[in-house]
Write a structure and sequence with these properties.
Beta-Lactamase
Length: about 700
């Protein structure tokens, strides 16, 4: 079978591979669960669309009798568009799908309005605003194109390597679905075929001796007619069934005049064959049994296909281990179990440094090690670099983890002449329910405390109780309503210039107004983060603070989160609000958390640089709270450092806080970056701030957050 494998495929990220694996997993699980073919194909289209915004997916199939293309599934495509594309003849001017069939090759059209491949159906593209279309041929067992899987976009664009892989995978899955449908249709029609002797047939006499067979029998079993006539059909027995099986079969034939079921027989060459056999008793005029008719169908191909589907649904294709779906099935069983999750340390770096081929081989080697050395009841791969060991007992988790750590410490893994020493980070849970969730929470906790650590889930301390969950849901609902009703409002806290002794800047702080009460962000920021609403809060703060500050000339700062940078909307949104409210960019300071600058994602750095070029100032908030990357601060040409409140609030009585602050100030002055001390709450703290020559102070000593500015 032809494949569309690009050299750029190495650019596909592990998360993108996981997205494709998740689609494959979901669809194969539906196949294994005997979902209707129409529903499976529609769901596949929907899942593919979710990975390409502003797109619709479609599956087209060639009609064997007319050799014309028709839509088989396109749940998001309007009926009018489907009708317009019906009976499409494959050819060089018949769009991406027509060309994919005609040339038996993938087609990636960036502009359907000008591309010659859309010559014959350009009006359809224009009518339904299909700006770009990428099609992958669906091929049969002879490598002939029989259909296409396509993603049509409402934007002019070309596919990334990830999208090409998505198209290729979806086309392969459709092929599996169509083959499975064909086999299942054959099985459903079996009863009719048996009555008409369309399948293999044996007729025996009243003594159960073979008196007739058809050509299908000879082809299936490899016996010639003369070799079996006069023999008992037990010459075909495989010895896979006990005496009870045959007793029950004959009891059914004698009592009900028929029997049907699955049976394993053997061919003339000794090979086994799985069959669905229907036996009927034939009676004479006196209602006496005198013949038996056995009609059967070869189920070997169907069984093999079903086994392949089950393997694909419940096994990881790379390592051969069971996957997350199978693990979830096992965890549903009653009884105490222990689950240990292992995350491969630095796996993304291995992929980056040595390539995905080495990474895949490493995962295969680790799968073998984990499966064969640690006495598990089941070993699974549940994520790109994450494994699970399941035990049907209460094991000593720390002892088992130490055993694995010792083994891996002394184990050198050699992949393509590259020697690797691998370690894991561990999360574990024991109990009868929620094991996967609890062990995942434990693994997250373990990662936060460093690599190669173990954390065991504690039911009392790690579980969110019912009241906490209710509170969290209430806060989330409160935030949604407040955003919709415009009740997320800005408060302003003054920042004192320690040279002029005046408030010269303000920080914009988010609050919610609810029934006359002002609600602190400590209540709603975490729900906002988990719900993906932080950018909506930021937008509200930008819009309302710009409007408020339009009546004065103060400089003011707005907090920017990593979620805002990931959405990549800031520059355009700020520009719009500048024009709307007449705010100049040089009046605005954008405060980012220290972790954002230290991580230094390329896209984030580009955005921050673009914002600075536009005239905005950049401040690092809570500097010193994480893993200060001084080089990154200098690279970003930071305008202000805000020293973390945890060092300022007790600087007058904690020597460690003083020394850390002094070191930050020393660095900042050498880099010519002004500092702002947060949480200045009394005169003793302020005196030390002034002694250290910190340029600005912010805190309750000078200004409490308010919806008004200080007169």
């Amino acid at each position: 079978m032809k494949e569309d494998v690009s050299l750029d495929e190495v650019k596909i990220t592990p998360q993108e591979y996981n997205n494709i694996l998740d689609i494959q997993q979901t669809i194969l699980d539906m196949i294994a669960s005997r979902n209707h073919c129409t529903n499976i194909l529609a769901h596949l289209c929907t899942l593919a669309e979710s990975l390409l915004p502003n797109s619709v997916a479609s599956i087209m199939l060639v009609d064997k009798s007319t050799e014309l293309l028709n839509i088989l599934s396109a749940p998001s495509v309007p009926r009018a568009a489907q009708d317009a594309l019906s009976n499409l003849k494959p050819g060089p001017g018949s769009g991406s799908c027509g060309n994919a069939i005609f040339h038996n090759e993938p087609q990636y059209v960036q502009d359907t309005f000008t591309d010659p491949r859309f010559k014959n159906i350009r009006q359809v593209a224009a009518d339904f605003n299909l700006c770009a279309c990428w099609s992958m041929p669906i091929r049969d067992e002879n490598d002939k194109a029989i259909g296409s899987f396509a993603l049509s976009s409402f934007e002019h664009r070309l596919p990334a390597p990830f999208h090409k892989k998505l198209l290729q995978t979806a086309a392969s899955i459709v092929n599996i679905i169509l083959k499975n449908r064909k086999i299942e249709k054959r099985n459903k029609l079996f009863a009719t075929a048996a009555q008409n002797a369309a399948e293999g047939m044996i007729i025996t006499n009243e003594h159960n001796k073979i008196i007739e067979v058809n050509e299908a029998f000879e082809e299936i079993y490899g016996y010639m007619e003369q070799e079996v006539l006069g023999h008992n059909p037990n010459i075909l027995a495989s010895n896979k069934h006990d005496e009870k099986f045959y007793t029950e079969m004959w009891d059914s034939i004698h009592k009900e005049s028929k029997w049907a079921g699955e049976i394993i027989n053997k061919r003339a060459d000794g090979s086994e064959i799985v069959q669905w056999m229907s036996v009927s008793a034939l009676y004479d005029a006196h209602d006496k049994e005198y013949n038996y008719l056995a009609v059967f169908s070869d189920l070997t191909a169907l069984k093999k296909s079903q086994k392949q589907v089950e393997n694909m649904a419940y096994k990881d294709s790379l390592t051969g281990l069971y996957n997350k779906t199978h693990l979830e099935q096992l965890l549903k069983a009653s009884g105490q179990k222990t689950l240990l999750l292992l995350n491969v340390n630095n796996f993304s770096y291995i992929n980056t440094a040595y390539g995905f081929e080495v990474g895949d081989k490493l995962l295969q080697e680790l799968a073998s090690i984990l499966k064969n050395n640690f006495s598990t009841n089941c070993t699974c791969r549940i994520n790109s670099d994450e494994f699970a060991l399941l035990y049907y007992e209460d094991i000593d988790i720390e002892e088992k983890t130490s055993e694995i750590q010792d083994y891996m410490y002394n184990k050198e893994i050699i992949i393509d002449n590259i020697t690797l020493n691998i370690s894991f980070t561990y999360g574990a849970a024991h109990g009868e329910s929620n094991l996967l969730r609890n062990s995942a929470l434990a693994l997250k906790q373990s990662k936060e405390s460093g690599k190669n650590n173990l954390y065991v889930f504690n039911q009392d301390s790690d579980n969110i109780d019912h009241s906490q969950r209710e509170s969290f849901i209430a806060s989330n609902n409160l935030l949604h309503n407040a955003l919709n009703e415009g009740r997320v409002i800005p408060y302003f806290q003054g920042i004192r210039n320690n040279t002029t002794h005046e408030i010269t800047k303000y920080e914009v702080l988010a609050r919610i107004e609810h029934n006359g009460e002002i609600i602190s962000p400590y209540t709603f920021l975490e729900p906002a983060r988990l719900s993906g609403l932080l950018p909506e809060i930021t937008k509200a703060m930008i819009d309302k603070s710009f409007k408020f500050m339009a009546s004065n000339n103060y400089t003011f700062s707005i907090n920017i989160t990593e979620d805002d940078l990931s959405k990549n909307y800031l520059l355009a949104y700020l520009n719009d609000k500048e024009l709307e409210h007449g705010i100049e960019a040089n009046r605005v300071i954008l405060e980012i958390l220290e972790g954002v600058s230290a991580t230094g994602k390329k896209n984030h750095v580009r955005q921050l640089t673009g914002l600075k070029n536009r005239g905005y100032s950049i401040a690092i908030d809570d500097f010193g709270s994480e893993y200060s990357n001084f080089e990154r601060v200098l690279d970003l040409d930071i305008d202000f450092l805000k020293i973390d409140a945890k060092y300022i609030k007790d600087i007058h009585k904690n020597s460690k806080s003083y020394e850390v602050t002094r070191a930050i100030v020393f660095f900042a002055k050498n880099a010519n970056i002004p500092c702002i001390a947060e949480f200045v709450h009394n005169t003793e703290v302020q005196k030390i701030i002034e002694d250290l020559e910190i340029e600005y102070s912010q805190g309750f000593l000078f200004s409490e957050p308010s919806d008004k500015l200080i007169d």
